[in-house]
Design brief:
alpha/beta; Quinone Oxidoreductase, Chain A, domain 1; binds zinc ion; 2 domains; Rossmann fold
């Protein structure tokens, strides 16, 4: 089989490798669609501390089960599946507290290799985070399961009302997945603040009520004037820029919620106005990764035909064109690109 190997930052090579075979609790999936993700771009450009090179890569995918381990009873060869690429150990402190997103081994056991023809799925993922793909869902849309799970995890426990006004800062795929999920929860007054006009087009397409292509100060003024000076009920930061983390609370009303979603660079620090956080009782939330609960919720959303996740997919490429797809993603010529091995 063919699979891309990230040899070192900046260099990928398409290799011929043996097709994996599953151990007892494992399955092997023939990848039908893999999506480009900002994490892949970072990994491609700078490497990733958790995944030393050379390594296979790509982690958002769906496909067809091609082989099943002896202990796997709920899946068969030929099943079309969607996969979230990590699973909990179910034994550590965090797993026992239903904080499986923080499982001590969840990230180091992540499945990489979606940019290849076959991927072996470890038992812990087979147990928790593999779902049958509904017929009506395309493989590319089904591959949104992973990023969407991060979004549903971030919104877990956040109370949403149909009359809420939400501001999403950032206009990439994660930002627009938030728009889709908020709309699915009946929140329609969702604004997107972005800088890239190309991406802004996508924001309107997924149903953002208003798209502001502007700096943060200007955007904040527009939000305040639309809310009688109060600010938004919910503010979701999706850029991973320290200065945006620091400014996000300025968009929130008293008693509002701020979700700091985008991970910033290691070693950075943010400063906040303590009086605002205290006297205005802002709820600040900074979610990481996902739990099996969140994956189930993401699956339910994708299975609902009104979700329209395919609007985030900007183009399709063959396996050997991965470099082109990563480049298009990096250059912001779209949101996410599907590789079809
Ligand atoms: Zn991703
Ligand atoms: Zn664990």
């Amino acid at each position: 089989m063919r699979a891309h190997i990230l040899q070192e930052p900046g260099r990928i090579e398409l290799h011929e490798l043996p097709v994996p075979s599953p151990d007892e609790g494992e399955i092997v999936v023939r990848v039908r669609a893999a999506l480009t993700c900002g994490t892949d771009i970072k990994m491609f450009l700078r490497g990733h501390p958790k995944f030393p090179t050379p390594t296979r890569f790509g982690h958002e995918f769906s496909g067809q089960v091609s082989a099943v381990g002896r202990e796997v009873k709920h899946l068969r060869e030929g099943d079309e599946v969607m996969v979230a690429p990590t699973g909990p150990c179910n034994a550590c402190y965090y797993c026992s507290r239903e904080q499986e997103n923080l499982c001590e081994t969840v990230i180091e056991t992540m499945v990489l290799g979606a940019y290849g023809e076959f991927v072996k799925i470890p038992a812990r993922i087979v147990r928790a985070n593999v779902y049958p793909k509904p017929r009506a869902l395309s493989f590319a849309e089904a591959a949104l399961l992973e990023p969407l799970s991060c979004v549903t995890h971030g919104l877990e426990g956040i109370s949403l009302r149909p009359d809420d006004m939400a501001v999403v800062i950032g206009a990439g795929a994660i930002a627009l997945l938030h728009v889709l999920v908020l709309r699915a929860h009946g929140v329609h007054n969702v604004w997107v603040v972005g800088r890239n006009p190309e991406r802004a087009r996508y924001a309107s397409r997924v149903g953002a009520q208003r798209v502001l292509i502007s700096g943060l100060s200007e955007a904040r003024a527009a939000v305040l004037s639309a809310t009688a000076g109060r600010g938004a009920d919910l503010v979701i930061e999706c850029t991973g820029q320290v200065e945006v983390w620091e400014r996000a609370p300025d968009f929130a009303r008293r008693g509002g919620t701020v979700i700091l979603f985008g991970g910033c660079a290691a070693g950075t620090q943010a400063r906040f106005d303590t009086l605002r956080l205290h006297y205005d009782q802002l709820r600040v939330h900074s979610p990481f990764h996902f739990t099996p609960r969140a994956v189930r919720r993401a699956y339910e959303l994708l299975a609902d035909s009104s979700f329209a996740g395919e609007r985030l997919i900007s183009g399709y490429y063959a396996l050997e064109e991965l470099a082109k797809a990563l480049d298009a993603h990096r250059a912001g010529r779209g949101l996410k690109f599907a590789i079809e091995p």
